[in-house]
Amino acid sequence: VQLQESGGGSVQAGGSLRLSCAAAGFTYSSYCMGWFRQAPGKEREGVATIATDGREIYADSVKGRFTISRHNAKKTLALQMNSLKSEDSGLYYCARGAYAMSKCLFHDYNYWGQGTQVTVSS
pLDDT by residue (tens digit) across 103-112? Predict the structure, then answer.
């Protein structure tokens, strides 16, 4: 299993970024996929997940600002982030669910990318 994130960077508060994740080595369409983030000194937290049928779940802190999407044929995952805030800064990870066709909550993810840094300045 391989997951490779891209698209991070530095942006001013109120700006936008789009993260992408390229997946390989498994039947992509059969698994939950998610975005997680970790800020310095804080625990990793779930940002958004998307199920095999396209159902989306978001952390309360990003609802209405972030949109997760997946393209099963291209084996890619995306996170569109708008109206960014300084508290959105952190290392963002793409992750694969541990079980095929499971419910896509914020637990039971067993493969992770290396992360892409997002820095939002106020």
Answer: 899 999 999 9
